[in-house]
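anyone seen this seq b4? input:
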Amino acid sequence: MKKSKRILALLLGASMSLGLAACGGGGGTTTTPAPGNSNTPAANESSTPSAGGNVELTIWTYPIGKFGDYDTMQGLIDEYTAANPGVSIKFELLDYTNGDTQVTSAITSGTAPDIIMEGPERLVTNWGANNLMVDLSDLWTEEATADIAATSQAVVDACQMDGKYYEYPLCMTTHCMAINYEVFEEAGALQYIDEETRTWTTDNFVKAMETIRDSGLVSVPGIVYCGGQGGDQGTRALVNNLYSGTYTNADHTEYTANSTENVKALELIKSMVDSGALNANAGFQAADELQQFANGTAAVTFCWNASNKANYASQVAFTPYAMAFPTDDGKPELCGGIWGFGIFDNGDQAKIDAAKDFIRYICDDPEQAKESVQLTGFFPVRASLGNVYEGTETEADAAEFLTLMPYMGDYYNVIGGWTEQRTNWWNMLQKILTGGVDAQTAADEFVTNSNAAIG
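predicted toks r here
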């Protein structure tokens, strides 16, 4: 299928420009028009539906890079419908403030979209688990499965439940932390990191933060935010990595945050807060902490990825240097993000078939799949696509995060009770870091309450 000049121009403009979708699914904002906004072109639909079209699809997308941008979506739809005159497509752009409420309302009223773009937390363990989604097993051919598994078996596992695939993935990333390189350099703290692998040990992390504290170069070495769920993947990864703990069991059937390893990590963080090597802020979520990092107030951030590097690029006057979370065994396990497509089962087989064809176009067509991933600013789940940023203006930025991709750990986000545990997590951190509750007691309470929500 020949690509239009419009799509190619959009690709150049994408340049890692993402919303805070990767910051815990709700820790930030988006600049795209909300569904129903009067500034959005009428009905958010393809401007010239094909004459005689006999299938009309609706697609809703969360702000996953340029898939949360009106012009980009219009261009993709125009390309597809021009080659498929039997299909017309409407679309709506969701955000992470009201998007979940809008989807729930649509499900309740029987007006759910045909296609929706997001991750396994919603597509699989929420809507899929509630029998609202179409089984996409036929898209998961032997070739496609092998291609995706060659990148990460965790992606294959996360997209299915009870033998049914409710998501067909397009892209992925790992979430990490970052340091202010110049502050670390001036303070003499670079000696504590391995710049080649972007890793550091738990002991060296403590030494580095104490060195930053004693340097007086910043107001606070780092901030453990616990004022809400925004960016909670950062604090979870910090705790889990320090002493190689786990967040859930291997089967994702129960939470394990009260393990000996995790309690030890929580106690270490509390001791660092008490010594001034870290700061605990019960009023901050990730967006607040990120702003402090961008301002140069804090020397590290625990909520970093390609998205946030792009979002804060115009604000930082230093080099934000991406790092894996510190770990005792030298083997970091980073939280990841996986984004792709699901189909709501609206009972119309013609729509289902057309929706699958559109998804194949976006994800499987060799030329379009590469462009689709570039539009997200993340990285392909298909090994065969290779480095989609090679030779582009964003190659250098992408290389920084590609270094961290092999550290992606277990995708435990597919466990039940996910919404409830997110609230339980930041409440637990508050109790330990600012409320005077001992780590074991608070962690036990977190596990009891979160396991009770699994259902």
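Residues 1-52 have pLDDT under 50 and may be disordered. The longest helix spans residues 260-275. kinda curious what u guys think
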